[in-house]
Amino acid sequence: MDSLRWLLLTYKVPAEPAARRIALWRRLKGMGAVYLQNGVCLLPKADDAARRLKMMENDIADMGGDCVILQTVALDQAQEDKVVARFKADRDDQYREFIGRCADFEKEIAKEVAKRKFTYAELEEEDTDLKKLQGWLEKIRKLDFYGAALADEAAARLRDCEAVLEAYAKQVFDAHEENR
To answer: Helix or strand or coil: residue 62?
Structure first.
């Protein structure tokens, strides 16, 4: 068995101030860490992750806490599969939320079309929203270490949003041509 290797971080920090503890949790989740329990999380072994965890070690010490960083492997294939499934589930949760936002984006443009609000200002606002969706999907993809099930659906929904915005842009440009 060619085992996957992970970095295991265990930490304990003071309960107060809560903002610092929450910020630490957010940073770890932002790296794609999977929590096994409170104060115990895993990341796929990579130089970048190791470097970032070492930097967090200093932050944890500054908070009056303590941590240990270890390299680890699963005991057997079943345990490895459980861990990979947790990584995939976390990413699928993010993809699911992203897909919901894509639906909201499409509804917003449909609402503007129904109102016949074909303004450059509205188009610019919708374009900004699409750029946010594109950036968000890229962030999720970077954390999708093991190929979550909803990755392809999320990418397809983004393409749909891009097509909807393109069609709306054409309507905006056509409306302004008519006004000349």
So the answer is: helix
